[in-house]
Amino acid sequence: MNKTIRRATIKDLIAITQLIAPFIDEFAINDSGRQLFCVSMIEKMLENPEIHYFVYSDHQEMIGVIAYKNPAHLVHFFISKEKQAQGIGRTMWNFILQEVKKSGVSVFTVNSSCNAQPVYERFGFVVKDETIENHGLRYVPMSLNLVNT
Question: What range does the domain containing 71 cover?
């Protein structure tokens, strides 16, 4: 089946929300944090011109999502639990990295869930601060130096 990375549209809203749902309790520490991933919040992200939201699908199933906010802050990166460890995350990461590099910025940042920290470290990110709890979420601030990548 043909797999593609494309810009997300409002038609993807429910599929995106459903793909993210199984991961929320890994980093949301209360209802305030969980609400950041509800349908209306994802819709706001899709409509925000500062956020570049992409999906990976095989035209039948949403497999992954990745999004960054200008100029270079990764805000969402989720691969369906059933499709992890198949190179999809690496493919999506390489795609988004090339997108961000076009802007000429030198640092890419992410607030990683504790579970995803090893993945981001494999991509070259380094921890910038201790684990933070803010806005109902628990995360590890990380950054990647884009000079020399």
Answer: 4-145
